[in-house]
User: Fold these one by one.
Assistant:
Number 1:
Amino acid sequence: MSHPFRVDRDPCVPVRVRAGLTEDEAGELAALVPGAADGGVVALGLRAVFEAAHLLADLDVLEPPVEAMWRRALAAVALRVGGLDATSDGDAWLDAREDLLACGRFDAARVVDYFDPEPERWRLYGGPRPFLQDPRLAEEGGDLAPPGRLVMSRASGANALWADSTPQDVPVDAGESVAWLLTWRGYGPSGTGGTRCHGGRNSHIAKAGPYRALISYFPHHPDSLFTTLVLSVPAPSAWPTNPGPDLAPWESEQLPDPLGVLPPAGPATLLAGRSAHAVLLTGDEDGRTTGCRITWGTTSDLPPATDPYVIERDTGGPVRASRARAVWRDLDALLLHERPGDKNTLRRPTAFDHLVELDPDLLDRLGVRALGWDQERRDLDRAWYSATTPPVLHHLAEVDPDGAAAIAAAHRSAETWAGHLRRALAAAWRGANPLRHKDDQHGFVDQGSAWYWERAEQEFWTALTTPGTPPAFAALAVACFDTSTPALKSTARGRRATAKARAQLFRAPRKATAAGSQPAA
């Protein structure tokens, strides 16, 4: 007999309570979430998240890909309980969002109406329609995998041990299982997986999840989960208009056809309905996952759709996650509607397009939450990462064109001086090591470049928050060159090569110097 765990009722979403609650707010919190403390962290069921969203500061999820999937799922629920699905007229929708923000909380009656009618659809284990699962896998899905297969941070397949040393056969708590169930839907790898026989097709080959290897960006209020969730719902201009019912998986009575996956029909299917994998969990009476079936959920690539939280490129698909690239280096691509480039034009996430209509006082408080997982489309994971910017969305180009342009110029300057530094380091190394293969230089150059980017981020934010102070990327490049090259000066040849490369760096083109300040001698 499996445990009757329900994601609407039982703890599965880690959140952080706002600090500094008033006496009335603290009393309301105690009634809604017994045991929760001012400024503390607590795990809630979905229903309590929306009942208490105005008393919560933010999510408190450890793993960035899990957080990215929770933010998408919560946006789909906010669409419904916030009444933001009532109209597709742009102006009327903006009015509805403004009214909702003015209320300061989700309507309690709407929350009840959404979660109460069909409690079985929120059940994690067993039943005819377990949450975000395909019950057909009990017959179609082949052998049961150990519970650790569900946890994508545990060593499995081609992945080395990199995050979680827990053995594969250790059961997974129900709340954690919900998190990884969501993550498999978004980030599951392509390639070999569990075998499934459906409709005469017997295969063990899966397609990659829709967000695999991508970085996602969400509007973010540092002290109001309610505001963050409302602003995460994309405006009607970003909604797909394909035929079919626009229902989140937990709202639909129909299971998806793995031999003919449909494109998103509207905002709910866009936010919560895209997946290339099918999963079915087995639970015990203690509320733990003791086995799972994970296999293909589609035989072809997912139908194209523009996700509202990714930066699109005109060629090559959305911007991919890279652990070596700091989030601030793409800040201008979030503020400008489009950022032209030498090889690609970047188009900001559509979730940011209609933030410009917000009250300026609110916009002044909004930053960006970035969540990435550096990985291959196949089963190879490197590292996940997250970042939260200071309030920057008041610099959206439509609101502050000069500020957005200055940020874009600062980014270009940083990239330009990074290129100058790499070329100078490479020239110094080659001059000091004429008999070695040129490929041997990469570790030396990469280390100097890494030092530069570590310091460039602080330089960027300091300049951004100190008007009239241009970022000193040029001086920083010279300083990083000097830090990197002492080992090359052990020979006369190395000293000459280093001095020549430094002089060339110091005399870099005036265009770059003007944007990034004159280097110090």
Number 2:
Amino acid sequence: MAYPWHGSGRPAVPAELRRQLAESHGDAYAEEVRRSVRVAVRTAQASGTAVVFGGHFSSGKSTLLNALLGGDLLPTDDFPETGVPCRIVSGARERAVAATAAGTVELAFGREALSGVVSLVGADGEYREDVHGVHEVRLTVTGGGPAGRGCCWIDSPGIDDTADVHDRAARTAAAGDALVWVVDSRRPLSVGETEFLREHRERTGTGAALFVVNAFLSEDTTAGWQRFLSRADYFRERIAALGDAETEVVFVSARAASGGPDFGLGDVRDRLDALGLRTHPSVRTVRLHRAAQALARLADDAAARRDRLDREMKEAARRRSELERAEAAARAECMRNKTARLIADGFARLGHEVRACGSAVAAEMGDSGDLSRDGRYAASLSRRVEQVCDALADELMAAVTEVAREQLHRPPGADVRAAVGRRLHPGELTLNVPDTPLGKARGGAGGALGAAIGTMVLPGIGTLIGALAGSFTGAVSAADAALSRDREGAKADALRAAEDAAQVLDTRKPTVTRLFTKACTPLPVLEPATDPAPLAVLDRLHDHLWAQAERLTAAGAQACVPRCGRTAPAEDGR
């Protein structure tokens, strides 16, 4: 019966998937997965088989193995005796080695030496603790041992003793390729045995490969043996009730067989020889199930790695988001502060420049000559103030735009420039140029003097001219004084108008600040996209391995079907 893979059908990680794994998770992980899959396949295809002898303590496992080996090698007793698994293989030279926590220890080959290592109960009748430091005893026998290259028999500790020994028996049974369950005829299939076998089926995908009912005869004779066999159906029914109706059942009296006639020992050996083949249905089921479990564990590991990576990526994204929010808040605060400072500095300069506009217009009025009363001074002041306000608006736009770019904010647009320009317009500026009537006297006095001189020739002319000249001089002085007062009043009003404009503009500072602050909002910062490849490749690996595991599980279940009463065909490389 072939295994369910040939060539391209062998469970493996496709080359492209391995390349993607290496690219996203490193060469080491890709190689680990490849090697783990390969080990699972090779283990399932190994030529030799490990047959574990299990059962209740003192059910006769060690006695049965001694009978098979044709000697008295393994310690036996009516009380729990074997506390350490004993692995038996065939070889050219007898050898006993104990595998301990400290390393391997060579033992003398014989019952006494083995008893000192594996026996649960010491000579004083007390349980020994030192057996827990021995992992396994490995025995090489030269005759009567398991047939076939790489095959071994394992004498397992009995169940229903201490919890530690029970657990060691369960681990030993699960690690084997086939379980031979030795049933004590005196107490067949206790509750503990039934539970143990149920758990074993869950772990390995199959129950015991063979039930060996060990008969404790009242007298180790052929007649006693035949009387026992007459009750064989009772034991078969008990075993069938476990749900193992297809499992073979053979009968033996190990104690009686040790002393002479066969007593069922030949049947046991025939079944053991069959279990030595890797194609035996039970062996095949266990191995496929074990390979499926290995692949399922790899699949679960990939899923766990994927979930862990997903959490790490989300946590990293969360930290980036928190950092970005903190940085964005800091940038926004910096944007507000710098904008407010720029505007405050600009408005401070604006006040000085607007007042300077008033002084400039006052200078236009001069210190002599006539004053213009056609509104030119007010127009000049308005034009000058408008120019410095426009200059400030442009300056603020440039400076705030630079800060916005620096702090990752939207720069102010043309609509903001227009709105700021409107807010920086102080309105129509008026300027009062006084017009004192006395100021016209100078022209009238000159005309009168000319007329008098030109038309009057009277006696005492010198006296008259002197009087007129004196009157004219007084009129001119009065007119100059009036004009000077008008000029000073006009200049003062120009300064006053400029001061008023400066104060009005200063009240516009909060509005201008709000215009810029409202327009310059933070730009959305695009977070770097999370690379989905590392997660996706783990998903694909999980799905691939899980599908392979399910395929092997189905093949193992199918292998269970043709077990009853059949012997596996011979195969090269047993």
Number 3:
Amino acid sequence: MMKLLIVDDEEHLVESMTASIAWETAGITSVFSACSGKQAMEQMDKNAADIVVTDVRMPGMNGIELIRAVKQKWPRTVSILLTGHAEFEYAQQGLKAKAAHYFLKPVKDEELLAAVSDAARALQAEREQMTAYVQSQAMVHRNLPILRSNLLNHLIQGRMWTERKLTEQLQLYGLPIGLGDTISLILIRIEDPQKRYDPSDMSLPGFAVTNIVEELVSQHFKSWSCEDVYGHLLFIVNGGGDASGRQLEQTADEMRQIVSRLLHLTVSVILSPSGTFPASVEELYQRCVATVRSQIGYDNDFVVQLGGHHVKPASLVVASLYSPPLFPHLLEAGNWEAAREKLQEVLLEWGTKYSGSHEHLSEIYYALKSAFSYFVHKNGGLLTNYRLHTPLDIRSIGELEYWATGLLDRLQHEMNTELSASRHSVVAQIHQFVQEHLSEDVSLQAIAEYVYMHPTHVSKVFKRETGENLSDYLLRLRMEKAVFLLKDSKYRVYEIANRLGYKNPTYFIKVFKEHFGVTPQEFRESTLL
């Protein structure tokens, strides 16, 4: 809702402005009036307006004093000043009092309406921004465990963050680990050797184990946890050195005993050496996962303390294929430029590290083919239409690049064509709705609800596809129909106004004259000559 208060000591002017101007077209839902500054303040106390339009020269409290008083008590209210005197002092005082606009009387209705419309839009945008902020804060608080878990998963998967961005995330989520801190990792695999739980029901014991570990760890360390993609529990704790290592081992033994006694499960625990946050996180995590695979395997109920000295084995994978953002995700998001950049990153890595290696060329080809195949199937396509149903004989990096960029270009073109068709459909729906409801409510909000879109997006789509503002289209359509009805019908002017959605015939006459230079009656009479 958007409320307007009109203040002027000339009562007939207040009544005229209230009744003759189509305030609803500016987003105003309620209009109030007052004939003095004192009445205006009383009205504001009863029902505070969002926008105040006031004359400057009034007996008692003048307009400048009024908007100062309003601004002090209702700081978000927007004020617009009107005056019959072109005096610089008034304009200067109005600016100091933070009036949004300053008009000389008599002001044209369309100018005042435009100023009120601008103010209403700005207030609505401010409200939406505030609402979005409150909702985002509530969402962060509500989803804090998930957000913390996701951030840690991104770090262990090697996602790169700027120091500033990571610091912001750590502070926003209230995490106890900071940049440069000494940290260690605890990787926990939950095991059910007696098959007491159905695999689909392991989330509940997993939650119980997390609570047990958090309670034990919190006695000596600050921690942060997540569940990784393999179903392991991962805790990152601050601290390092021999004392911390011994304490972690003791904590691991305690958790094994408690989990066994209370849940009748076993856990295997991998304790990493210390490192620096966030630089060491991915490497320490990969060592923990590799240890589960190479030293524990199908056995259970182990605690393994990793040593500090470690020679990292040479990686033989094209790492950029598997580091975020992933190529399949970029395709799915329709982020075509980023997908091309990712492709170039992968090709550059091949040229730098594996130039001439057909082995790694094949790795890249099959990874890209898998991503393209998934995207095609998800969008209802067939692999045969894209020559993805059989492997190609890719012999050089040039052939691979030609094939991948060609497929990217084709998919982007098809998706853009589909998007354009969708927008054309929306515009057609808007045209139909306006034609059928011209005598009713054809506000932007009503149109947006009809096509199931946000009002701002409706306006942008319509403008992009037609080159015409939605409000201009609506006015043009009304004026064209007004001409038709004036020429070919016996309807009275007020009846035509009603048929075109103008509840106020006086405003219809004014709009018609501004559009054609003559009143509706004068136009009708000219057609009879």
